[in-house]
From TrEMBL, chains A, B:
<dbReference type="InterPro" id="IPR012349">
    <property type="entry name" value="Split_barrel_FMN-bd"/>
</dbReference>
<dbReference type="InterPro" id="IPR024747">
    <property type="entry name" value="Pyridox_Oxase-rel"/>
</dbReference>
<protein>
    <recommendedName>
        <fullName>Nitroimidazol reductase NimA-like FMN-containing flavoprotein (Pyridoxamine 5'-phosphate oxidase superfamily)</fullName>
    </recommendedName>
</protein>
<feature type="region of interest" description="Disordered">
    <location>
        <begin position="188"/>
        <end position="212"/>
    </location>
</feature>
<dbReference type="Pfam" id="PF12900">
    <property type="entry name" value="Pyridox_ox_2"/>
</dbReference>
């Protein structure tokens, strides 16, 4: 990843990482990215949206008619942020309470994806691996209604905090319990569509996702 | 909540909500908000940060030296987004795959919080209800190192998707399984600090948080 003045981590720089393996894992685990841009009249905007990494690019998609898609397609610079919250860090002092997290921030300008149909396969497989071969593929009207935009993974950084609290030396003698409450995300039991035709069992590609 | 042209939901407006009860519940459940602003030289920026609602204000905090805190304190307009992912929506068509979610977007300019010490109590209690009375409170040096900024909840909107997939009428006849895979966030068993003094059990305020 390209380091630039704005991706250099000034606050707690020892938590910073610029390697692609860390970044890729972090993006691949995330369903949602937070896409910020500056509106045509100079205001900040940020929206949550499904992300999918495709090799050296991060893909986002949306309705061709959406304001965000139109602004980004017109060349508005983007800042995309992804965060996983892994735990609450309880210190003996209020000041040193913290969170364990893994986050990434990317910068760049998005371009329409070269192969929109393939990109929609990437999104579907991101949501549910193995899904693409079980569903009706997008028709011409649906492809036209969807815009897919691509951000090259060239400028950005990741930041990770793990482990127990850091305290002032004298606070270790206090009576307060200290440690970490881990936070995890789980996929639960599949809920069938009330309109599901009878005789269609939960398929393996859905079952295996919910076992995670 | 004040409706303005930019908080009017243009895409899928039936998912939009402007009532404070919905917004408050959504903010109170979230640990992290995504704070976007325009840098002094016109670039978009977005960072994840702990949020805590205090009545009619949303509080964020950070090091007094951080670039984000300084930009916001200097009057940069902010857009704050909060999102909960509640499920993956599996449709019979690739096009109608979706996510169930609850999100909010707020706009405004932040001000330094009137009572910084009280605000830090609000943050500590947000992370772990009941924690404040068990920890060492911030001293003068720590208070000085921390900036707390406050955003009035005056301009914004919430957007919620729930329930099964919506399909094209003819797709209900397809063989594909359809439905929702729910996603939940869980707090796990507390992990004691390796430097915890012996004889300090997990207190009730920690135990009750992890039962959620």
């Amino acid at each position: 990843m390209l380091k630039t003045p704005r991706t250099k981590l000034r606050r707690v720089p020892q938590r910073g990482l610029h390697d692609r393996a860390t970044l890729d894992a972090l993006l691949d685990e995330a369903l949602i990215g937070h896409v910020a841009f500056v509106t045509h009249d100079g205001h900040p905007a940020v929206i949550p949206t499904l992300i999918a990494r495709d090799g050296d690019d991060l893909l986002i998609h949306g309705s061709s008619a959406s304001r965000t898609v139109r602004a980004l397609r017109a060349g508005a610079e983007a800042c995309v942020e992804v965060t996983h919250v892994d735990g609450i860090v309880l210190a003996r002092s209020a000041f040193h309470h913290s969170m364990n997290y893994r986050s990434a921030i990317l910068y760049g300008t998005l371009q329409p994806a070269a192969d929109k149909a393939r990109a929609l396969e990437v999104f579907t497989e991101k949501l549910v691996p193995g899904r693409w071969d079980h569903v009706r593929w997008p028709n011409a009207k649906e492809l036209k209604a969807t815009e897919v935009l691509s951000l090259p993974l060239t400028e950005g950084s990741a930041k990770v905090r793990t482990g127990p609290p850091g305290e002032e030396e004298e606070d270790y003698a206090l009576d307060a319990w200290a440690g970490v409450i881990p936070i995890t995300t789980r996929r639960g039991e599949p809920i069938p569509d009330p309109q599901l035709r009878s005789g269609i069992p939960v398929p393996d590609h859905v079952r295996s996702l919910t076992a995670r």
